[in-house]
Sequence to fold (447 residues):
Amino acid sequence: MALLVHLLACAFGLGSWVAINGLWVELPLIVNELPEGWELPSYLTVIIQLANLGPLLVTLMHKLRPGRLNERAVIYAILTVGILACFLLAFFWRETTVVAGAPRSTAFLIITFFLSLVDCTSSVTFLPFMMQLPPEYITTYFIGEGLSGFVPGLVALGQGVGISKCVNVTHSFDNSTEALKDPYAIQTQYLSENFSTEVFFFFLSAMMAISLVAFVLLNRVPRMFQLSSENLVGDSVASVSSGLDNPAAEGVPVERGGEEAGQSRPLLAKPGYTVSKLAFIYFLVVWVNGLTNGLLPSVQTYSCMSYGNVAYHLSAALASMANPVACLIAMFLPKRSLVFLGLLSLVGTGFGAYNMAMAALSPCPLLQGSAAGDAIIVLSWIFFTGTLSYVKVMVGVILRDESHSALVWCGAAVQAGSMVGALTMFPLVNVYHLFHSGDICTVKCPL
Fold:
C-alpha cells in the first residue's frame, strides 16, 4: 500500500509543470512553423507572467474567505483543463488569424495561456492537498515535480529535431523580371524529426491525464491525519512564495522540492540576518529570477538558432533537465554561505551574459558554423540554468528558516524579478527589434 501511494504521489507531482516545460523544449520545432518566428519565446514569457493571476486569486480566497475554497474541485478543474488544452494544441497549434494586418498564432497563444494558468495554479493547490498525507509522501511528490521538467526534456531528446540543409531551388519559369534575373535560390530544408509535434502534445496530454488519475486514487487513500484550515492556509501562502517562479523556460516546483527536502534534513542556520544581508538576499532573488524567467528565455532563439536548430534543440532540452538536477544537488550538497551564493550567481550571470551577447550578435554570432561554437552555446545554457537554479533553491531555504514573512516577501521578489525581466525584453524584441533573425543558409556573415 505504501509503495502504491508513493507512486501515486510521484505521478500527481508530474502533472504540476509538465505542460509548460514541454512547450519550452518543443519550441525549436515550433518557431520555424509559426508566424512569430524567433519572437515567440518573448510572447510566452509575458503570457506565463499574466497566468499568475490564478495563484493570486486562490491566495486571496484563502485570506478573504478562509475555508470556503474547495481545493479538490480546483485541482480537478485545472487538471481537466490541462488535459484538454494539450489535446487541443495537437490540432490547432498551427492555426493563425490576421491581427492588425499580420498573421498571428492566436490559437497557440490562447491555449498556452490556459496551460500557464493550470501550471501556475498548481503551485498553490497541489502542495496543500499533499500536506494531508503523511510527511514521507511529500518528498515523493517533489520528486514528481522534478520529473515534470526532466521527462519532457528526455522525450524531446528522443524526438530529435529535423537537421537543416541548404539546397538550391529553381524558380518555375514565368514572365516576371525577377525570376529571369535570378532563376536559382538557396533555401533551408528541414529533415523530419523522429515523431511529430502533434505526437508530443498528445504525450503531454497523457502526462496530465496520469496526474489526474493519480489524484483521483489519492483521494481514496485513508487519511493518516487532517490539517486544520489555519495550517492549510499557511501552507498555501508558503507555496505561493516559493512556487510563483515560472518554468518556461525553469521548473519552478522542483525548486520547492529542494526547499522541502531541506526541511526534512535540517540545515544549521544562523537566524536573524542583518538588514544588509537580507537586502543582498532579496537582490539575489530579484536578479536571478529576472534572468532565468524573463530576460534570457525571451531571446533564447536568437542566442541559439543562428548556430542551427540542433544547437537550439539541445540547449532547450538539456537546460530543462539541468534545473531538476541542480535542485537535487542542492538537496544533498547544500551550501548556505552568502559569499558562495553571490559568487555562484556571478558565474551564472557570466554564462547568461554570453548567451545574451550571442543573441545580440545574431544572425552572425561568434564561432558560427563550427562544432566549438555549437558546443559552447549549448554548455553555456546548461550551466546558466544549473547554477542559478541552485542559487534559487538555497536562497529559498535561507528565507524559509528566517521567518514565514521572509518567505512571503521572497515570493513577491520572485514575481517582481520575473515580471520586470519579461516586460523589459518584450518591447526590445517585438517593438524596437534590437535582435535580428536570419536564415543560416542565406545570411552572409563576415569570416
Notes: The two ends are 65 Å apart (CA to CA).
